[in-house]
Model the fold of this input.
Amino acid sequence: MKRGMSSLIAVVLLIGFTVILSVLILSFNTEFFNNVIGSTQEKINYECNNVNFRIKDGCYNSDNITLLVENTGGIDLDDGFYARIYVNGKVYDIPTLPSIKIKQYETKNINLLYSGLDKEVKLELTYRIKNEKGIQYCGDNSDSYILGECSE
Done:
């Protein structure tokens, strides 16, 4: 009688061990990445849910739009805003400065460079969050205001 394993049994055991180890590693990685993605989404939702601001006043002149924005929430707004204006059924994006920061319960003037407005228009301001996934917009937490011409 031969003692020891045959080479066929050794190969079958080695393949079985490799498959089991691969399944364990893949299931761990899947769970780990799902937890990371879930916690990132929870953080975005938490931050967006705690964003509260309102446009108290706003107007435009020949080359810019001036807004008075109040942070009514419990967190600092330090990732910037996204702005849109609605004129005659058309939508225009306005680049906003990412360096706009409004501390908790602070009211601040914001100037946006934009020209060519000649009548009342609607402006919508949305807060944005920067994270490892890029820029996320808090669409549910936005405010709008009807802009008129600034009085000199």
In short: The CA atoms of residues 40 and 67 lie 32 Å apart. DSSP finds one helix and seven strands in the chain.
